[in-house]
Amino acid sequence: MCGSLGRVSGSLLQVKVFITPRKGILDPQGRAVEGSLKSLGFDCVATVRVGRYITIDLDAQSTAEAGAMVKKMCDQLLANPNIEDYRFELEPTHESSTTLPERSDR
Amino acid sequence: MCGSLGRVSGSLLQVKVFITPRKGILDPQGRAVEGSLKSLGFDCVATVRVGRYITIDLDAQSTAEAGAMVKKMCDQLLANPNIEDYRFELEPTHESSTTLPERSDR
Predict the structure, then answer these.
(1) Domain boundaries, chain A
(2) How many A×B Cβ pairs under 8 Å?
(3) Is A8 on the interface with B (CB under 8 A)?
(4) How close is the nearest chain A Cα to the Cα of B95, in Å?
């Protein structure tokens, strides 16, 4: 799935995936953290949402190829499409940093 | 703990906290995701690390006050100082976006 015509090593990218509970969906973990923070004295806290932050080191030919691949990874495994949103950033590790944000459009 | 001289409402900030397993610490969840991605055909994946992504809406007088407060939250509750690193960004929700990255220095 990595490259279409046989495997040629590309450049190493670091992908940062941010997965968050969808707006309107109950987030019990976030509620629990919110309550704990308030009980510790942080009464200025309004809302807490807890999601996942996944970093992936990836060998890809281009950021476009990597972006398409990471979207598939999110749709097939990393995020729950029913209750979560995701976005991701790609950072070439040997070049200047480039971000390619992507949002689930479901 | 929010403001030093009584409670005066400040501006609403959104804080994004990124918590990651410390380099060198075994991350079984990351290993499991890595294996699953490879078994789905994503054989270009090198390393996966799974952390937490926490967003906090916060009422604070200044980004400096908010930054100090979020550092305390991380140290006291959000991150495990023995095995995790954290950093965070502050984004005023009513002004132009400002980021204030902070790293655990342990």
Answers:
(1) 11-105
(2) 118
(3) no
(4) 18
The sheet carrying B11-21 orders its strands as A84-92, A11-21, A45-60, B45-60, B11-21, B84-92
Distance (Å) of CA A75 to CA A36, A92, A93, A106, B37: 32, 22, 25, 10, 12
Please state the ipTM of this predicted complex.
Answer: 0.82
For residue B45, the one-letter residue type is V
Give the predicted TM-score (pTM) of the model.
Answer: 0.82
CATH topology of domain B11-105: Mth169; Chain: A , (3.30.1280)
Identify the DSSP state of A35: H
- Tens digit of pLDDT for each residue in B35-64? 999 999 999 999 999 999 999 999 998 899
CA distance linking residue B91 with residue B14, whole number of Å = 5
